[in-house]
Amino acid sequence: MRQGSNGTVPQSVKYAIVGAGIHGLSTALHLAQMLKATGRGSGADILVIDKTSIAGGASGIACGVVRNNYFQPAMRELMAHSVDVWESDPKAYAYHPVGYMQISPECMHEDVASIYEQQKAIGYESEFIEGAADCQDYMTGLFDDWQAKGITSVLHEKRGGYATNTASIYGLADKAEAEGVRILTGVEVKGFEFGSNSGAVTALDTTRGRIGCDYVIVGAGPWVSRFWNMLELPKAISIKGRDGKMHDDVRMWTYWCLEEGTLGVDPEMHRTNDRRMPPVIHVDTDAPLYSDVDGSLITDRLWGLYYKPDFNFGGVQGGSSPYKVDQDPDSVAVDPYGPDSPDFIVGDNFIHTWCSMLAHCQKRFEGKISLYKYKEKSGGLGCFTPDNFPVFDVFRENVYVIADSNHGYKMLGVGKLVAQEIMGEKSALLEPFRFARFERGELHPTSHSPFPWS
Ligand SMILES: Cc1cc2nc3c(=O)[nH]c(=O)nc-3n(C[C@H](O)[C@H](O)[C@H](O)COP(=O)(O)OP(=O)(O)OC[C@H]3O[C@@H](n4cnc5c(N)ncnc54)[C@H](O)[C@@H]3O)c2cc1C
Fold first, then answer.
1. 395 within 8 A of 434, measured Cβ to Cβ
2. What is the C-alpha to C-alpha distance for residues 400 and 379, in angstroms, rounded to an integer?
3. Å from CA of 407 to ligand 1 middle
4. pLDDT tens digit sequence for 49-80
5. Phi/psi of residue 238, each to 5°?
6. Which of 53, 99, 135, 148 has the lowest tally of Cβ within 10 angstroms?
7. CA distance 367 to 359
8. Cα dihedral 80, 151, 308, 306 sign
9. Torsions phi, psi of 203, nearest 5?
10. Is the pLDDT reported for residue 361 higher than 80?
11. What's the 56 CA to ligand 1 centre distance in angstroms?
12. Structure confidence by residue, pLDDT tens digits, 208-219
């Protein structure tokens, strides 16, 4: 049952889930199904609470790219699991299985080759093309106007693609509600009540009063640092680095601003030579980038972009590398979020750079900057952990925190694994993402990509 802020608020629930984004709703759906299947309860035991609306956070503004391409083995296995979930009901999840391409320069060749090898090992279908001439042939075989420079490898993932952000989250909400889950929007969690004997959470303090609960799941996306504070967890932590030494007082959360936008061309103009919908394109290159407006040099350092035709956004939509918000996380204005933010939306610099990147890659985008959708505000914040990878873990005995470090729209399957863990079955796929990895020095490997999430 879906209820706005006037809906009745229960005095207590068994499972309280904060956040009606991809993780909160996916957890709600799978937990409801598992409770029913094991005779231990049903969706009626679950309440999802959101301070704004379904898809009111990052999940509702995500570009929606679903890929496997990660340098970190644990991330790749987790993504393969999530792609299975996307493929289980493409219609409800508004999923477009067009595939994904990572197109790279020589400095990333070795990293991407190892991704390809490991994709073969886990049975994730992809093709790997090496050498400048073969890459150019492969790309012009797809798009006859391909002209990106400095490319020496192409990884073509045959699975993955993208999904339509809001539609998929509503699809998930419908499925959860069909299992009896209640979704209460317009109600904000302001804090937690802790038990006097243990540190466990006994109730949520909300704008509609106290809600007692046995178990809490936090799927608060970019607001996770606020929940971390409410749970009285440390703002700075110790990390055992790759040098084997302990590094103390490392900030737990850092905000990055994601820059994305839409070129208002007819999405049909970006089909392949044989008129099919193209895979999502991601290009990184160290070739100099020149302005498509006046020919001036924009950068001669490694840069990257991604794009896809998108009928929902109404054009060719995508983005480039995010930038770090160099501020104490508590002072970052997360609200108002996304397009409503006065601070964290894209400006002229992004538009000029991203449109020039598109033109660098394909001739069809040359001279099209005037069609950029200036009036539609875009971009938004993501909240990242110290190593930029997720933390999936239980704190204070009964609070499951899903902190995806902004990797997460594609991670539709994480909610299923979290639900399994709440039911008592440990997940090997989630094990590499525990909080204790920082102290133990079990960090994920880093790649040469210009993006903090690859
Ligand atoms: C511009 C942009 C593009 C992106 N593109 C991609 C992409 O292409 N592919 C990809 O995989 N990932 C992408 N991401 C990352 C992805 O969107 C997020 O990692 C993911 O959506 C986070 O999901 P979530 O469920 O944790 O949080 P959200 O979707 O942010 O949901 C959290 C919810 O919690 C609610 N909430 C917050 N505080 C409270 C409170 N106090 N009380 C009650 N409710 C509260 C919010 O209203 C919100 O609805 C992108 C992110 C951004 C910003």
1. no
2. 28
3. 10
4. 999 999 999 999 999 999 988 888 899 899 99
5. -100, 135
6. 53
7. 8
8. positive
9. -160, 160
10. yes
11. 8
12. 999 999 999 999
